[in-house]
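Known limitations

Structure tokens in this collection are predictions and should be treated as such. Users comparing against experimental data should check residue numbering before alignment. To illustrate the layout, the record for Nucleoside diphosphate kinase is reproduced below. The input appears on top and the generated tokens appear beneath it.
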Amino acid sequence: MTVSRTFSIIKPDATRRNLTGAVTKMLEDGGLRVVASKRIHMTQAQAEGFYAVHKERPFFGELVEFMVSEPVVVQVLEGENAVLRNREIMGATNPSDADAGTIRKELALSIGENTVHGSDSEENAAIEIAYFFKDEEIVG
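Generated tokens:
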């Protein structure tokens, strides 16, 4: 068994609709454990830094604006093959392509308001976790 960690954000469209608990339940029911969680209102600088990889893409400004529009919940998740498992639970980026029972199929509003973000690799998970959490805040 390979227990690892990944990073998750419950996005503004979900917090606005009071779906934090529903999303977390789906993650936990899917075999992941929340080992750190906090509700924050991301600043412009935080959003721009976090999504810097997309800076040259045409949607960057809209993405940053969306992520600072409402509070988000940032989380560290732990479980067997956590990155892959989280991505399976989230479903495809476009909710219309997502499998039934996934977070995005069941809760997302659109491809832009798709409820959750999850790390795409163990390397990025480590970077993303460190961006929002100090080691002592992770209490798994």
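For this record: The two ends are 17 Å apart (CA to CA). The helical segments are 12-16, 20-29, 44-50, 60-67, 82-90, 103-107, 122-132. Please report discrepancies through the issue tracker.
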